[in-house]
Task: structure prediction
Amino acid sequence: MLVGKELLEKSKLLSKHSEDEIARGCGYVGPSGRVLRKSFYRALIEAKGYKLSNSAVGRPGNRSSRGRQAEFKTKVHGNGNLLIGHAYTKKLGLEPGQEYKIDLKKDSKIISLTPLN
Result:
């Protein structure tokens, strides 16, 4: 991840690209391939000479102190899979190894899970 003068120079070179492409080009990509926008913007602000305090971090009610939050939406991936994700299975109390019957209501496009145990 670029910082300081290198970050400013690289982001300026990529300025005709989208924000995500600029962040990627500057190395702000997590292990899963997700663009780390907040880290990129913070580094960019600091590279421009502004000091950011960490006083908001960890304050109750502050979204940044709670980590990534479940959005209760998903999309069908290019391979046809529909991923629910850990946040949702945890919220429902689903455990690895549990089995479910998948019921589909084609007309209303509703998917439901029925425990088999």
